Amino acid sequence: MEMKSQVTSFLAFAAAIMAVCAGAAFAQEAAQSPNAGAQLSAPQPAPAPAINAPTPAPEGPAPKIVCPDPEFDFGEKDEDVSVEHEFVIRNEGETPLEITNVRTSCGCTAAKPKDSTVAPGSETRIAATLSLRGRQGENAKTITVMSNDPVTPNLVLTMKGVVTAPIMYEPRVLNFGKVIDDNINPQTVVLRAPKEDFEITSVTSSLDFVKAEYKELEPKRAYEISAHIDKLPTAGQQTGMLTIETTHPTRPRVMVAVYADVVGPLDISPPTIAVRYSEDPNQKITQVLRVGPGTVKEFEVKEVVVPDERVGVELMPRPQSQWLIKLIDMPCDDSLEGKELIVYTTAEQMPEVRIPFRVIKPAQPVMPAPGSLNRALSQGAAAAQRGQGVRAVQGPAFTDGAAPAPAAQAPGDKNAPQQ
């Protein structure tokens, strides 16, 4: 049962890696265009507020949130422990301080204030717990305390330190990136044990097209594993894991995520149209997608069908069979959830391309309340469903336009789980 749970957790992580890597490839291509950034692409998260940056002083009495030590350095810890710390929060203002919300930068961190209301001249504490499981190297996680302080409405606290593991490995993900043919460079990962000797007994891949071998770098302390694509798999995003069996007394098994975006006849970026949900009925966004050559080098986009007549479309041809599709005034409600954009092309191997929409809704805010820390983590994924289309564009309607802006962060999260 334990092994089954580990594999299930890892596959959930690998699915997340797949989406991140796909977005990163799109971002890299967009950045290479001379007009990159001129158009909106996949919705970006709101810029992080400047850490504890003050705003002009208010007129009249107001609360003032103060943390004497907003940064906690836990030093060096093993990855199998959790770090606990209490941050002192003071109200040095003249009116009651209301703590309206406490948010953490990732699910590995839990934090909650003892009191949500702090009288002038009084203080409370925010108890924070950081799980180090599956982490290695330098780590820093933040806690944002939101309050009615008009000068510092978002107070940022930090927990940081160095995490050691019985077996350290880099990189955390074997990312082959976009794969058009089987002539692609191998990807390597290096394993090191800082304290105890170990040997590798076997390396296996859950993806049948990925083969791996290993060699010793330092006697019984460091090994390099090289993975390569043995045969070209089915087109699409492929994610799996490399399982490394060892003789280490406390880490007999290490699992490394493997990702490859195998390009089919056409290359679609991004593969999913993400819309960030807003309760404002007038909120609209514009995004740009790219349809480019994969194994088919020359083709044309004949027609684009949108699932909602409120969405405008501009079709912009580019040199070397590159096509940009600009979606204008997409509503930010949930009406596009489960729908698809349909692109008709002249490519015989791929005459119809369906690109799903995904509406991203923010997590519900957790209001502070007395009691124990809330350690529950939730995961979920919205299932894509096909919808009816409204014909919008036939043939190239525009000859000018800008390349899409970067849409995702780069892959290879150093804090990915290690099983």
Structure description:
By secondary structure, the chain is mostly beta strands. The chain has a domain at 2-47 and 265-394: Immunoglobulins (Immunoglobulin-like), CATH 2.60.40. Helix content is 7%, strand content 45%. The radius of gyration is 25 Å and the shape is flat. Residues 1-51 and 366-419 have low confidence and may be disordered.
Q: How are the elements arranged and paired?
A:
Layout: H1 2-31, E1 65-66, E2 71-78, E3 82-91, E4 97-104, E5 109-113, E6 117-118, E7 123-131, E8 137-147, E9 154-164, E10 168-170, E11 173-179, E12 187-192, E13 200-205, E14 210-218, E15 222-229, E16 236-246, E17 253-262, E18 266-269, E19 273-276, E20 284-293, E21 301-306, E22 312-318, E23 322-331, E24 340-345, E25 352-360, E26 390-394
Parallel strand pairs: 2-9, 11-17, 19-25
Antiparallel strand pairs: 1-3, 3-7, 4-6, 4-8, 5-7, 8-9, 10-12, 12-15, 13-16, 14-15, 16-17, 18-20, 20-23, 21-24, 21-26, 22-23, 24-25
Q: Mean of the pLDDT scores?
A: 77
Name of the CATH architecture of the domain at 2-47 and 265-394: Sandwich
Distance between the termini: 14 Å
Q: How many alpha or pi helices?
A: 1
The major β-sheet equals: 5 strands, mixed
Strand order of the largest sheet: 2-9-8-4-6
Oligomerization status of the protein chains = single chain
- Structural class, from secondary structure content? mainly beta
Shape: flat
Helix content: under 10%
| CATH class category name of the domain at 2-47 and 265-394 | Mainly Beta
Residue fraction in strands: 35-45%
Under CATH, the topology of the domain at 2-47 and 265-394 can be stated as: Immunoglobulin-like
Radius of gyration (CA) equals 25 Å
So, the CATH homologous superfamily of the domain at 2-47 and 265-394? Immunoglobulins
Low-pLDDT sequence parts: 1-51, 366-419
* H and E order: HEEEEEEEEEEEEEEEEEEEEEEEEEE
Number of strands: 26
